[in-house]
Amino acid sequence: xxxxxxxxxxxxxxxxxxxxxxxxxxxxxxxxxxxxxxxxxxxxxxxxxxxxxxxxxxxxxxxxxxxxxxxxxxxxxxxxxxxxxxxxxxxxxxxxxxxxxxxxxxxxxxxxxxxxxxxxxxxxxxxxxxxxxxxxxxxxxxxxxxxxxxxxxxxxxxxxxxxxxxxxxxxxxxxxxxxxxxxxxxxxxxxxxxxxxxxxxxxxxxxxxxxxxxxxxxxxxxxxxxxxxxxxxxxxxxxxxxxxxxxxxxxxxxxxxxxxxxxxxxxxxxxxxxxxxxxxxxxxxxxxxxxxxxxxxxxxxxxxxxxxxxxxxxxxxxxxxxxxxxxxxxxxxxxxxxxxxxxxxxxxxxxxxxxxxxxxxxxxxxxxxxxxxxxxxxxxxxxxxxxxxxxxxxxxx
Length: 397
Prior knowledge:
Layout: H1 15-27, H2 33-42, H3 45-50, H4 58-66, H5 71-86, E1 100-111, E2 120-126, E3 129-144, E4 151-156, H6 163-178, E5 184-187, H7 194-202, E6 206-210, H8 217-226, E7 232-236, E8 239-249, E9 259-274, E10 277-291, H9 300-309, H10 311-324, H11 335-359, H12 370-380
Parallel strand pairs: 1-5, 5-6
Antiparallel strand pairs: 1-3, 2-3, 3-4, 6-10, 7-8, 8-9, 9-10
């Protein structure tokens, strides 16, 4: 991050110093800029972490991030993930040869009072009145079916455009920058549009996308063919699946190419404890996926697996980052600062995950969870040695 710059002409506190403070804020799981400012005042180890005597205030953090160029944080995340893959620090299932990335949208926060020029706007009902809400939404790409589930990149949804338009920009960028590390894009039914699929296929990659719209000709043709052929029955632990593989369908008229449909009827046995009594409940599920991959290359069971892996983005991505990393907190209401913060969060998420999984040795001293690791790091910040941690970073303070 020595090359990161912002719009200030003669900064008294270097941009790299600000970025290192924000990175540590996420690594230590601090909840806000104000909490970070309090840590900067109380603990002496911060000066050795950032290598300077002048430490930023909460207002300085927001102002500097709002003027920071996005290219350096994006390049940093790309470099970290590329090196992690090359070092085999990110690993998937045994024998897996495809690398799958899930793409989905996420709403960060909403306000009925404060807005900026890049806010999205909607009207909602509040009792008898209709009120206007201002909110921000991003599209995130994340590897799924692997550990750690690193974030590839993200893109903000701009005013006047839909989520899929932002996703096309995101996919174009990540396939141009990290295309060798991505083989398949999986997404929700919202992304079952010809322009999005064309963007992925034009880069030589593949898609696995949920189909829910029963009015689609492709859905109706698949339903008719499904009724004419027996399913493949697969018993896998508590789940039994009836699987239909329906290739070479021509009903996706706007795509102008044949697509394959994989249809799964699932019965999953769940154990529930109600009033101290254990009950066995069977949960039904029906899933339909559309893909360009041929049956000879990838079996239907693998398509089903990748389709369910998409939930990694929700469970191991959005849920964890929002609940434990404060992803949805409005640190500063500025669109550029928001993207810099999320990219910094992506770097902190990956590096602390790798440090916990790959670097810590077993023993009583090892924190039991990654959340406990953050608390341990916070305690030991004051014990940093006298020399600066990042001597190569050029600072102007």
